[in-house]
Please model this.
Amino acid sequence: MKLEYTLRLADFKAGRRLHRRQKLVRRILPYTWPILTFICLIGAFVFSGTSHKELFGQCFAIGFGALVASIGQPILQFFNIRKSYSRLFHSGRTDRRSFVDINDEYIVRRLAEMSELKILWSGVFGFAQDEKITMIYTNKDCFLLIPTQAMTPAQRIELDELVVRHGVRR
Model:
């Protein structure tokens, strides 16, 4: 099966969302700073009326740091997603087409006039797919992104059969 597509920022974001949904820890992690802020503010409120002023100060300081992290994390994520997307292609590249050749032996991904990556099926770590994006993992945090809309229903079935045949983890 041969595919040609242009990876857009929306596809890249969909890939990050699908990757985050793969594990429970990745789903919970964005909520740790707001939860810690809430817990520390409750602790500061409780310790403000007692003789334990050092505990009040520690809860207040940790809560303030967690509040800053709660606000800063989405802002940093906004910029990091765009930075990661722009790093996929060399600066000044106007042709952002990708070509993927998937057969029974290997997967080859080429970026237009720039690079080529060949992966044997034994080197595929995992597979994930939803209605927007298809991800082929090369290790637990690296993956190839293919917009699902770039494939016909027959090609999706063929890819599913290849994944099952090679015993790739879903």
Remarks:
- The chain is about 50% helix and 20% strand.
- Residues 113 and 159 are 26 Å apart (CA to CA).
- Residues 24-87 form one domain.
